[in-house]
Write a structure and sequence with these properties.
Elements (H helix, E strand, L loop, with lengths): L2 H15 L3 H6 L1 H10 L22 E5 L3 E7 L8 E14 L19 E11 L4 E6 L2 E7 L12
Antiparallel strand pairs: 1-2, 2-6, 3-4, 5-6
Length: 157
């Protein structure tokens, strides 16, 4: 356990044990001050224009069935023409770019926009000609047949 974080927590607990705990806890300005003055990770995923995005884009799920490997990437807001795929062994590269500009100053910005590039480690190798990819309603669905369904015995000399 990080001793500095523990001591910081103890100081915070002492502060709220004295005084009127419930009025302070429900006071919005007190809560905002708490977030500003303490170096805790935010529980929500709200991003503003000056806050770096901590999540990985695009979020991707990978499923392995008896015969296939299936990847589902959430790339909402992009067109099929703005996305590129390439594969090399067990690495799948997903790249994209859009330059749509929405007028106005962002007040809250949670959706990713602009260019991105992500390399995804595949559970099994494949070749580009064996991959099927579809893009529908913001979901990129990539699938390929598994080549190594069973372990094979290797003789030892």
């Amino acid at each position: 356990m990080d001793m500095d974080k523990f001591l910081q927590w103890m100081e915070l607990a002492k502060k709220y044990q004295s005084g009127n705990f419930w009025s302070e806890i429900f006071d919005q300005s007190s809560f905002d001050d708490f977030l500003k003055n303490n170096d805790f990770a935010r529980a929500d995923s709200t991003h503003t224009a000056d806050m770096p995005q901590k999540s990985i884009f695009p979020p991707t799920d990978i499923y392995v069935t008896d015969g296939d490997v299936i990847l589902i990437s959430d790339i909402a807001g992009y067109l099929k023409e703005e996305i590129q795929l390439s594969v090399s062994g067990t690495k799948l590269l997903i790249k994209g770019f859009n330059n749509r500009v929405i007028p106005g100053e962002p007040v809250q910005q949670e959706r990713f926009q602009g260019s991105f590039e992500r390399v995804i480690q595949l559970p099994e190798p494949t070749y580009p000609n064996q991959i099927k990819a579809k893009f529908n309603n913001g979901l990129l669905i990539v699938s390929y047949k598994r080549q190594f369904l069973n372990e094979e015995h290797v003789p030892i000399d």
